[in-house]
């Protein structure tokens, strides 16, 4: 099981577009959740932060060790929109920061339930 947290910087002036992307995720949650299943992703959370007039997005995930190996369950439209959003809104001049998990606390019964869903 992998636990990841990565920080991305949003391009200046793209906050409204981020709002639209978050709204799109909420409106298409069924397809988004299918994508997570297909990617063997147990949990994915997006956090937003504004600091010194700069916006950041943090992606937190708990995933199977084989995450990313598509099982064919993903939605091509969701994937396409996600890539478009990244290209338009994520500042590629800022190197994404991967945080290091010092401790992962998932109760055994929850971990077992996640792993048995595969």
Written description of the protein model:
The protein has helices spanning 15-27, 29-38, 76-89, 108-116, and strands at residues 2-9, 41-51, 54-63, 97-98. By secondary structure, the protein is of the alpha+beta class. It has one domain (2-116): Alpha-Beta Plaits (2-Layer Sandwich). A four-stranded antiparallel beta sheet has the order 2-3-1-4, with helices on one face. The longest helix is centred in the C-terminal third of the chain and has 14 residues, at 76-89. The chain is globular and about 45 Å long.
State the main characteristics.
4 helices; 4-stranded antiparallel sheet; 4 strands; alpha+beta; 118 residues
Q: What is the number of beta strands?
A: 4
In which range does the helix fraction lie?
A: 25-40%
- State the low-pLDDT regions, or none: none
Q: Averaged pLDDT, please?
A: 89
CATH class: Alpha Beta
Number of helices: 4
Largest sheet: 4 strands, antiparallel
Indicate the radius of gyration in whole angstroms: 15 Å
H and E order: EHHEEHEH
What is the CA–CA distance across the termini? 12 Å
Q: Write the CATH fold name.
A: Alpha-Beta Plaits
Assign an overall shape.
Answer: globular
Regarding quaternary structure, what we see is single chain
Strand order of the largest sheet: 2-3-1-4
Corresponding CATH architecture: 2-Layer Sandwich
Which percent band covers the strand fraction? 25-35%
Pfam families: DUF6176
InterPro entries: DUF6176
What can be said about this structure in brief?
InterPro entries: DUF6176. 39% of the residues lie in helices and 26% in strands.
């Amino acid at each position: 099981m992998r636990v990841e947290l990565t920080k991305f910087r949003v391009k200046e002036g793209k906050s409204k577009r981020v709002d639209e992307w978050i709204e799109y995720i909420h409106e298409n949650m069924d397809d988004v959740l299918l994508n997570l299943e297909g990617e063997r992703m147990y949990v994915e959370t997006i956090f937003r932060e504004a600091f010194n007039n700069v916006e950041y997005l943090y992606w937190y995930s708990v995933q199977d060790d084989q995450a990313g190996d598509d099982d064919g369950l993903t939605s091509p439209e969701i994937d396409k929109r996600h890539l478009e959003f990244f290209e338009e809104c994520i500042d590629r001049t800022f190197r994404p920061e991967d945080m290091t998990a010092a401790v992962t606390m998932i109760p055994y019964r929850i971990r077992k339930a996640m792993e048995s869903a595969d």
